[in-house]
Amino acid sequence: MDITLIVGVTALLFIVIALSEPLSVRLRLPYSVVLAVVGAALGSAALILQTMDAGFGPDLREALALPIKSSVFLVVFLPTLLFEVALALNVRRMVDDWVPILVMAVLAVLAATLVIGLALTPFSSMPLVGCLLLGAIVSTTDPSAVVSIFRNVAAPQRLMRIVEGESLLNDAAAIALFGFFLTYVMAGVPNPTLLSGLSTFPWLLGGGLLVGLVVGRAGVELMRLMPGHPLAQISVSVALPYITYIAAEELHVSGVVAVVGAGLLLNLSGPSRLAPSTWAQLRELWGLLAHWAGALIFVLAALLIPRLLGDVRWHDLLLILIVALAAFASRALILWGVIPALRVLKLSPRVEPAYRAALLWGGLRGAVTLALALAVTENALVPANIKREIGILATGYVLFTLFVQGTTLRRVIRRLGLAQLSPLDLALSNQVIAVALQNVREEVAGSIREHELSRDIVRSEAKRFGQRLENAVQRAESTDEIPDRERITLGLVALAVREREEILSSFHEQLITPRLVEGMLSNVDYLIERTRQQGRDGYRSAARRSLTAGPMAKIAVVLHNRLRLSVPLANVVADRFDTLLIQRTILRHLHDYIDQKVRRLYGRRVSDLLHELLKRREEETERALESLHLQYPLYTEEMERRYIRRTALRMEERQYAALLEDGLIGPELHKTLCDTIEENRARSQARPRLDLAVHKDELIRQFPLFAGMDDDQRAALSKAMYTFYAQPGEILVRRGDPARRVFFIASGAIESEIAGEKRRLGRGDMFGQLSILLRKTRSAQVTSIAYSTLLALDENRFRDLLARNRELQEAVIESARARGVQLDMDLFPPLTA
Q1: Do 162 and 94 share a structural domain?
Q2: Which among 349, 399, 583, 817 has most CB atoms closer than 10 A?
Q3: Buried/exposed code over 132-144 (b: 16+ C-beta within 10 A; e: otherwise)
Q4: Nearest to 538 by CA among 568, 500, 590, 493
Q5: pLDDT digits (tens, 9 = 90+) for 271-290
Q6: What one-character-per-residue DSSP string does 515-539 give?
Q7: Of the candidates 40, 787, 803, which has an alpha carbon nearest to the alpha carbon of residue 399?
Q8: What is the DSSP code (8-state) at residue 454?
Q9: Is the same domain home to 531 and 676?
Q10: Residue where a domain terminates, one of 666, 690, 714
């Protein structure tokens, strides 16, 4: 075939795609329906041209026939569609509805396969396994058809998430079932056992997800190594879904699940690894690629419709109706049977009846179903009668969903009231309009003065705009008052979203490392979700959670306390210090955001409360920073110097960019200056070394008990002591434990409980000495109530120190007197020089 002709036909398809979009708007039909009609028309024209000899050359007839294989859909187009949907998902919000999503994506596919297969068997010439194969083929909903329609009617976001999650995941389940049942109908191929099928299914899904995550992480790291080359990073993203799909198929796991896993991983880590402009370009490119792929897959699949329906009979129409009714019944069984049951068992959030009705009617089938049916008709080992019925019934059912459900889905959603704003959103929208118009009036007034426009025109337009503003204000005031509780929740969510933007801004200014920004974004996303669910209480608890040390910090402390490994602890301290420092700065910026944006929208009462909540977070952050300063004074000083250097470099970089934009310096000089900044920035990124030996000596100097020691004595004591770090809530001494060590509190606070009486000890105090002197087991339980740094001595070294330090003896006697214990002086060793 002439390559020029192929290129021409491809260009023609893109023209068809371009014209179909405005045509769908004019006809008020779903875009996918118009594409299906156009594709079917082109396919019919191709069949007609193949039968004609006069006036058309063989190349033209062959080009218009477009002999498309099922592999084109499954390998070329499907990964593109799934990858883009995975990139566009709000993954963290989708977690709230993961149970109904998995039910619709996996259990609904199984139910549809069984119900359709069993319902069709009495009326079809195919055996049961052939009917089950057809059930698997038609059980997958089409992502491009369903999602595009729901987006066009402004359906609720939660409904969109469930639909997108289902469409994203059910292809994998359907394709796995398709492969399992296909082997049963192929002549000469050993039939698998049901047990082998059930054991293979989890491996297909789990193995596919693992491959997707591994390849996706490798792709993200490769993109991270090219920070100054956005086009190269975007090129890696284009290759990622196809490499993932091929790798998964070679390992005999689900390529579809692997592509989804890689897309979700890039979705979560991309914003924190790529520059904002690069991420925006990447998303735009993938939106365009998915648009082309979705349109081409529909047009090319529709080209096959005349071929697949070439031998349709009246009895086939009855079978198509049976398939449609069985598909509705199976989907209704899941939506009105399984999901409410899971809700009763508290395993799933509530899915409103209107949402379930929309999901029932929104189960459109499309190109994936046609591609699987085509794969059956291409298989030489499948009997001819099974090929015929599967091709006709699958194609007929796809057309039924598109032309019956697809054309009426908008109307159904509106009839269910899902395209309308909630009372809260409606009230909020009126206030938003009023505030926005007030801001517009101020900006327009300034623009009019600048351009010196005609006074008469200005006066008439000002009157017209003033009337519009007055109407907007009246609507806002006449709307039912939004409860303060809802206003507070909305304001806190807005603050948390702004906090997320500030974190990303700090990252792109290179004030935060990629590893830290992922953790901070995860914390703020948790903050947003808990605030949406529980309002003010959720905001407080999530904010406190972000300040607590994670499991890695606890492991690092254990490694240091037990094995004297200080490197993990140094990294944890540096990460925590950087995080708290950035968070403190961001919280201060949020006060300005409240005054500039939130107050005009939600009122003074709400903004004052938000200020108060932010101040509490600032105080908690300050306390956490102070505890770090007390625990690691020298190290945190070095970390502060490092932060100041990085901030200064960023400001210097901005100055050079402004000079370049104003034309005061040329690109060559700007490049040289920026290279110097990058060199200095690389040096400033190096973290100071946490020298625990120096740190311990500095802590000992702070104790009044050891103030009279000379340098040699302090050095010997430093060598004998070891540093012990404790988390809030950590039990340091348990009642009944043998007395082996004495602790000196360098920073933080602990609580000692004896016989129901609690005492608090702080910096400079010691505990554990009386049990050693009296040779008794511990009578108190001691718990750290803050991030605490302790110096510990074992029994022998403590007694040796006691024999050489009068101040320590007096401190021990005083502590015993405070607890009502009289110590015999014979317990003390005689003082030595």
Answers
A1: yes
A2: 583
A3: bbbbbbbbbbbbb
A4: 493
A5: 777 877 788 889 889 888 88
A6: HHHHHHHHHHHHHHHHHHHHHHHHH
A7: 40
A8: -
A9: no
A10: 690
| Chain position carrying tokens 């001819």 | 384
Give residue 453's pLDDT band: very low, low, confident or very high (50, 70, 90). low
Please tell me whether residues 741 and 614 are part of one structural domain: no
State the pTM of this model.
0.65
CB 500 within 8 Å of CB 542: no
> 376 with 133: CB under 8 angstroms?
yes
CATH number at residue 779: 2.60.120.10
Torsion of the alpha carbons at 627, 633, 635 and 638, rounded to the nearest 10: 110
Over 70: is that where the pLDDT of 338 sits? yes
Highest mean pLDDT among 233-247, 300-314, 510-524, 698-712: 233-247
Instruction: Choose among 225, 602, 187: nearest CA to 387.
Output: 187
Angle, CA of 761, 767 and 769, to the nearest 5°: 155
Average pLDDT over residues 37-57: 66
For the residues 550-573, what does the mean pLDDT come to? 73
The DSSP element (H or E) to which 426 belongs, if any, is: helix 423-451
> Which one is predicted more confidently, 579 or 144?
579
DSSP code at position 403? I
Secondary-structure percent of the chain, ordered helix, strand, coil, rounded to 5: 75, 5, 20
Find all residues with CB under 8 Å of 218, minimum gap 6, and list them.
none
Within a 10 A sphere around the Cβ of 288, how many other Cβ atoms? 11
Q: Which of 228, 99, 416 is nearest to 408 (CA)?
A: 416
Residue 784 within any structural domain of the chain:
yes
Residues in CB range of 406: below 8 A, 6 or more apart: 30, 32, 33, 145, 149, 364
Among 482, 498, 532, identify where a domain stops.
482
Q: 668: how many CB neighbours lie within 10 A of its CB?
A: 8
Pair 749, 788: CB distance under 8 Å: yes
How far CA 41 is from CA of 292, 305, 306, 620, in Å, comes to 19, 9, 9, 67
Burial (CB < 10 A; 0-12, 13-18, 19+), residue 284, is exposed
Domain that holds residue 432: 423-482
- Indicate the residue type of 708: G
Together in a domain, 771 and 802:
yes
Q: What's the number of domains the chain is made of?
A: 5
Q: Is the pLDDT of residue 54 over 50?
A: no
How many CB atoms are closer than 10 A to CB 217? 15
